[in-house]
Amino acid sequence: MPDEPAPAAGLVAGSGFALPGQSWVEDAALVDGFSNGLAPEALASEEARHRALLAAIRTPIVSTTMDGRITGFNGAAVALLGSPARLYGRPIREVLPFAHDPRDPSGAEMQGRLADATGRTVDLDVSRTLLHDGPERGSAVYVVHDISRHAEVNRLREQLLYNVAHELRGPLMVLDNALEILDTEYEALTAQEFVQVLGSARRTSRRIRTLMEDLLSAGSIQSGHFVVAPRPTVLKGIVDDAVEIARPSMEARQQSIQFDLPSAGRTVLADRRYARQVLSNLLVNASKYSPEDSVIRVIARTIGNMMRIVVEDQGPGIPPEQQAGLFERFYRVRADTDAPGVGLGLAIAKGIVEAHGGSIGIETEVGTGTRVWFTLPATRRSSADPARR
Ligand SMILES: Nc1ncnc2c1ncn2[C@@H]1O[C@H](COP(=O)(O)OP(=O)(O)OP(=O)(O)O)[C@@H](O)[C@H]1O
Ligand SMILES: [Mg+2]
Prior knowledge:
This protein is an alpha+beta fold. It has helices at about 25-30, 40-55, 75-80, 85, 90-95, 150-185, 190-225, 235-250, 270-290, 345-355; strands at about 60-65, 70-75, 110-115, 120-130, 140-145, 230-235, 255-260, 265-270, 295-305, 305-310, 360-365, 370-375. A 5-stranded antiparallel beta sheet has the order 2-1-5-4-3. A 5-stranded mixed beta sheet has the order 7-9-10-12-11. Strand 1 (about 60-65) and strand 2 (about 70-75) form a beta hairpin. The longest helix is centred in the middle third of the chain and has 38 residues, at about 150-185.
């Protein structure tokens, strides 16, 4: 019987790894403590069952001596933390630097981050259980949970809250100001000034409403409850609605807009409010990421049975290495993070377009500009019938 604690039963490398100077007989002897004095054959089969069970568990499990030296692990631990040779005999704190040693009274629950066997950064939650096999012997079992997804969702949620608060602060200040002026200076305002104050308040509340719509759409797209109600809708109507939303941004930057659209009555099969949301998001992007005095173009063409709508700008373009996550929620190109926005516009546009059976894409060249296109089902019918508007 060795005089130090040994691997917990079944906690062995599942890859046929032979432990130097250690035999399964020793392991078998050491599980005797909780095998209730079974006969050797029964004990061996009991131990084999334990091993099979632990190998089947997809949760990484590592056992150590009371000094924190690793004596056993299952296949899931190898997949997460590295090869058996890298694990066996190493101090637990070299493998899980944030973990407490078995004798450390600070607590049995630990959380931390590390690079896994493939180099990916993972967030881990580790719980430690001490097994007392007798007054002199004992071992610790560390059960490791990969909580990266959960941590990522939490990070995104925090980031969203921060960004939304940041996005709301500006418009709310403008609204506060407008109300203050109307309250204290109403008598002194000329008719023209009054219209200006009211106009700015209206534009601002529209901006808040657009942000709110984006958040609601993002929420329902993400949860899978997003439903559109497509019906024949005049393309020009969608374009006009979207331009109205983007106009304040374009006017503030002295940008002009040009249209190259099919005949006025052409219709698409679309949910007008959501189609407007796609196009206004693309137009606002084209405006806020492009220089002052530049030109934004909206081009639409029928291709087969789809309408392809393109928003083209003369902005800085997006470098190839930053294009990968563009249609993901909260993704923002690093250089642009000072510009207002929460990183939802393109993700929402993709969700809406795909819900209509269309597709969306981006062509961009650094120094030249960006062209974002999307397709919606085209309808062949004319809009002469006012009921379809
Ligand atoms: N036309 C464009 N030109 C250059 N960069 C763009 C353009 N459109 C989008 N981007 C980049 O892609 C990122 C993602 O765009 P997206 O519309 O999803 O989010 P946002 O504009 O940052 O915020 P939001 O649309 O939610 O207000 C932007 O932050 C910006 O860096
Ligand atoms: Mg945007």
